[in-house]
Structure formats: structure tokens, C-alpha cells
Specification:
15 helices; 2 domains; alpha+beta; five-stranded antiparallel beta sheet; about 35% helix; Phosphatase 2c, domain 1; phosphatase activity; 15 strands; Beta-Lactamase; elongated
């Protein structure tokens, strides 16, 4: 069998006592005619007795039965090992793989609880501890034991048990350079078994105390090592009673953890790549949303496992204006993230110069994309809003007073208006001018309406020789929210686009009236309704952006 050493120790429950003295080929020995006798009785003529019928060859039959039992045991072990490694191979995240490693190893060594520590030797992380049958509090108790007394910690620190390696392994000397041959040998023999923690002498008292409190009496720890990282961590399984794995169990769990360590190394590299892309993406997106008088913002976004090009922006502009944008770049991975960053930075520059004309902003962006990245396309939506123009609202003339306002009784109201950095900025409606290039239409949510904005049909950026589309102007009333989003919010539902749009409309309509004044609560409600698995669903490849713009009353 591939990956299984031929000289396996026999299962203790299947080998008869007399089989230990059998020949190297008991099947041939039992079936060969003319043999002078059996290993159990050298002087007998078993073959002759079998021919005359005077006595059956009991010893040969027993040997054949023992071999069949041994083969059945091997096949059973191989089937178990195959099932466990197949389940491990189906895990897609580091945490899933670590939990499955603990479950599979516990089944092989006959333990009920355990923990695995992920601590890559290259120091690049991530570092985490996952338990099987152990909660955070119980793991915390174990971590209070001095590190030198914990078997898995000694493995992580490169401190194998005294005498664990054979005499052929060179010992380090004072001032002697590290020997690669010793390092490889140490890595192969740093399995640490503590079969009787309550009764074993020389153990740390704190270890005994914690073991008694948590109810375990023995442990078996092994390293997890795979190239090119080297040591990735260590696993330890805990027994309720004094015990230790048999030689055969050690061999099987060794095969299993070799496969597990390779799988963990692959997932670790994938996790680091995704993390690097996520950090890059986060750095390219706004660190915080701007605070504009009369407007409150909230956003939720999530990146797919491979890193995508969905983005958003909220840009303070001169004279108290605000620019809002969402978009998506084709492709995935680092190249799409980099293209998203270039596109967003360019849009910011155009918005500062000509933000009051969203069509001009997108036209310039399309020209730039076509000239610099002709093989790429993108969708985008840009919206521009500025404070209402005009002076303070007309004040009534109290009885008995003449002359122009303001009057003393109205000074408090005027101060409230001035605190908003504009005369009546929270009372007069804001105009929102927007233009889209192949992007999803905004959704307006209010007390009296929930409707999509009727934007004109337009092609994505980079698809036509000359892009142009008319702008749309709306006036959100006080207390209304405008939702800008990427198509990933719709595609993650797994439904057709028409049904996904209907679902989004229903989710917005179902926002409770008590939270409609809070954009943070609004986006959370819509995400929960649209995506029951949450934003961080590892099974989805789509990016998600949801930006809520609430206009105060």
C-alpha cells in the first residue's frame, strides 16, 4: 500500500500468541508440501499426516487464520486512515483543519480531549490554540503551567525529552555549530508521552494540580512539521485515565499527522496570502467615514477569499459638499486590488476638481481606464450632494414687536442652526446628483417610500469608445436613507438578479421604524436579511459593499 510501511506491528487483538514464532512467510510455510515440520514442532511430519488423513495440520490452519486476521486489521486501519485524511482534506480554513486534526488524532490514539497550538517557526504567524473538549477557561488553566513542564511547549521550543533520541544522534557541544543531522533526527523523535501524570515522579506540581482539576491523567504530544515552513505547531491529546498509545497507534497517528502537517502548511500559505491582500485592500479604502452636518454614514464591506475589486468612498469636498462612490473592477486577486486602488485614487482627484458634475467625473475616469488599462473594465456610481443654499428660515414676528428679526426668543433656535455649520442645513432638503456606469441603482428608504432610483442605462467603464450617460437628480427628504451597494450583495444570495433585487427591496421595506434613523442598524438589518451566513462566509467568492447615507430631519 502506498504510504504504508510493510513492516507494521500486528494488531494486538488479532494475533494469536503462537504466531509470534512463525516464519517470515507463514502462508507459504503452511501450504508448502513436503516440509519437514511446523515451526511449533520441528520433529513432526505434518505434511505426511495430512496426506494419510491420520491427523489434520492444525498449526498450518492457525497460521493462515492469523495472517488473514492480520491483513484484516491492516485493511481496517487503512480504511480508517483514508476516511480521516479525506475529511481533513475537505477543510478550507485553518480553524476547520485544526479542529479536524484534533478529532482524527483522538480517534487514532484513543483519547477524548486535546488541543493543538499553531505557532509557525518562521515567526510570521498566525498563532492560535484550538481545543477539543476544552473550553477557553480550561485551556487558560493549562497555560498557567510553567512552559518547561508542558509537553507540547517543549516541542515548540525544540526541547525533546532526555534520551528520546538514540545514541546515534550527535549531541550539541559547547561552542559547536548546529548539526543539520541532529536537527532532522530531533524533529523525528520529539513525541512526548506522559502515561501517568498523577504517579510519575519529577513532574511539575502545577501540572499535577491542573491535570487533577481538569480530570486528565495522561497525555501524548507530537510535533507538526512540513516544508517549507518547518515546524508549524504541536498537538497533544489527553487521556482520562493513565494510558499511552500502542506502537501501532503511534505509527498510524504518525502517518496521519504527516498528511495533516502538509495540509496545514498549504492552508497557512493561503491564509497569509489572503491576509496580505486584505490588508492591502483595507489600506486602499477609507480608514473612517467623514462627518458632514446633516448627513450620517454607515458602511459594511467584505472581501472574497481571493481578493476582489469592489470598493467604496466617501469624500469631503469644498464648501461642505460630499462625494459618494461605489464601484467594482473586473478580476480578482492582487492585480484587481491594485487596479481598484488606482481607480479610486483617480476618481478622488476628478471629484475634487469637478465633483458637482458626476457625468464629467465618470467620463474622465473612463478615458483614463481605457488609456492605461485597456484590458480591464469596471462599474462605478458617483453621487454629489452639497448643503442647501439660502439663508435662515423666515421667523415669525411676535405680537407687539416691530423691526427685522432676529428676536431674543429666537436666538436659541438660531444657535442650533449655526451649530450645524449652515443656516437651516438640517431643515432644508439636500439635492443628490448621481451618475452610474453599469452599476446597480441606489435604493431610497423612507417613511413613505422604498424605491429604486430610476437611473439611465449605461455601459461599464472601458466597454465603449466614448462613454456618456445623463445624470439623475433626487431630493431625499429628512429621515430618508439612500443605499449604495455592489452587485456582490445580490450575487451572494445565489438567486437570479431579478429575484435578488426583489429580496433587497423586501429587506429594506422590512427595516423596523424604530431603527430607521440609525444607518448602522439599517445596514446590519439588511445584511442579516440578505446574507444569513454573514459577511464572512468562506464559501462565497463575491465581495460585498453596502453604504448607507442617512439625511437627518
Amino acid at each position: 500500500m502506498a504510504g504504508i510501511e510493510p513492516a507494521l506491528p500486528a494488531p494486538a487483538h488479532t494475533v494469536a500468541p503462537h504466531a509470534a514464532n512463525a516464519s517470515a512467510d507463514p502462508v507459504c510455510g503452511a501450504l508448502s508440501e513436503g516440509s519437514p515440520g511446523t515451526p511449533g514442532d520441528p520433529g513432526s511430519d505434518a505434511s505426511s499426516a495430512g496426506v494419510t488423513g491420520t491427523a489434520p495440520d492444525v498449526s498450518g490452519v492457525a497460521q493462515l487464520t492469523a495472517v488473514q486476521d492480520r491483513l484484516a486489521g491492516w485493511i481496517s486501519d487503512l480504511s480508517t486512515l483514508h476516511d480521516l485524511t479525506e475529511r481533513l482534506a475537505h477543510t478550507r480554513t485553518l480553524e476547520e483543519a485544526l479542529r479536524e486534526l484534533l478529532r482524527g488524532g483522538a480517534a487514532l490514539v484513543g483519547a477524548r480531549r486535546g488541543l493543538v497550538v499553531l505557532a509557525p517557526a518562521d515567526g510570521l504567524g498566525p498563532e492560535t490554540t484550538v481545543g477539543l473538549g476544552l473550553g477557553h477557561a480550561e485551556i487558560g488553566h493549562i497555560e498557567t503551567v510553567p512552559r518547561r513542564a508542558l509537553s507540547y511547549a517543549r516541542i515548540l521550543d525544540g526541547l525533546p525529552e532526555r534520551g528520546a533520541c538514540g545514541d546515534d544522534v550527535p549531541a550539541p557541544g559547547a561552542g559547536r555549530a548546529p548539526d543539520p543531522r541532529r536537527s532532522a533526527a530531533v524533529a523525528a523523535c520529539t513525541e512526548i508521552s506522559e502515561p501517568d501524570i498523577p504517579g510519575e515522579k519529577g513532574l511539575d506540581p502545577r501540572l499535577r494540580e491542573v491535570a487533577a482539576r481538569l480530570g486528565y491523567a495522561a497525555s501524548y504530544a507530537v510535533p507538526l512539521t512540513a516544508e517549507p515552513i518547518g515546524r508549524t505547531g504541536a498537538a497533544v491529546w489527553l487521556y482520562d485515565e493513565p494510558a499511552e498509545p500502542t506502537e501501532r497507534q503511534r505509527h498510524l497517528v504518525g502517518l496521519y499527522r504527516a498528511h495533516a502537517a502538509e495540509h496545514l502548511a498549504r492552508l497557512l500559505e493561503l491564509h497569509r496570502s489572503r491576509q496580505a491582500i486584505e490588508i492591502l485592500r483595507e489600506e486602499l479604502l477609507p480608514h473612517r467615514l467623514p462627518r458632514i452636518p446633516g448627513v450620517r454614514l454607515a458602511v459594511r464591506h467584505s472581501t472574497g477569499p481571493r481578493g476582489g475589486g469592489d470598493w467604496y468612498d466617501a469624500l469631503p469636498l469644498p464648501d461642505g459638499a460630499l462625494g459618494l462612490a461605489v464601484g467594482s473592477v473586473t478580476g480578482s486577486g492582487p492585480s484587481a486590488v491594485a487596479a481598484m486602488g488606482r481607480l479610486r485614487a483617480s476618481l478622488r482627484a476628478y471629484a475634487v476638481m469637478e465633483g458637482e458634475d458626476p457625468v464629467a467625473v465618470l467620463s474622465d475616469l473612463e478615458l483614463l481606464l481605457r488609456l492605461t488599462e485597456p484590458a480591464r473594465s469596471a462599474t462605478a456610481l458617483f453621487a454629489y450632494t452639497e448643503p442647501p443654499s439660502g439663508g435662515p428660515p423666515d421667523l415669525p414676528v411676535p405680537d407687539g414687536l416691530t423691526g427685522p428679526p432676529p428676536y431674543p426668543d429666537d436666538l436659541e433656535d438660531m444657535e442650533d442652526d449655526l451649530a450645524g455649520e449652515g443656516w437651516g442645513s438640517a431643515r432644508l432638503p439636500r439635492k443628490l446628483v448621481l451618475a452610474g456606469a453599469g452599476h446597480c441603482p441606489p435604493l431610497v428608504l423612507g417613511e413613505t417610500r422604498t424605491e429604486f432610483v430610476e437611473t439611465s442605462l449605461s455601459a461599464p467603464l472601458g466597454m465603449l469608445a466614448c462613454w456618456e450617460a445623463p445624470s439623475v437628480e433626487i431630493e431625499p427628504a429628512g429621515g430618508e436613507t439612500v443605499l449604495l451597494y455592489s452587485d456582490g450583495l445580490l450575487q451572494r444570495t445565489g438567486e437570479s438578479m431579478d429575484r435578488a433585487f426583489t429580496r433587497l427591496h423586501a429587506a429594506a421595506t422590512g427595516v423596523p421604524g424604530a431603527i430607521r434613523h440609525d444607518p448602522e442598524a439599517v445596514v446590519d438589518h439588511i445584511v442579516r436579511t440578505m446574507l444569513p451566513q454573514g459577511l464572512d462566509d468562506p464559501s462565497s467568492e463575491e465581495d460585498v459593499v453596502l453604504l448607507a447615507v442617512y439625511f437627518e430631519e
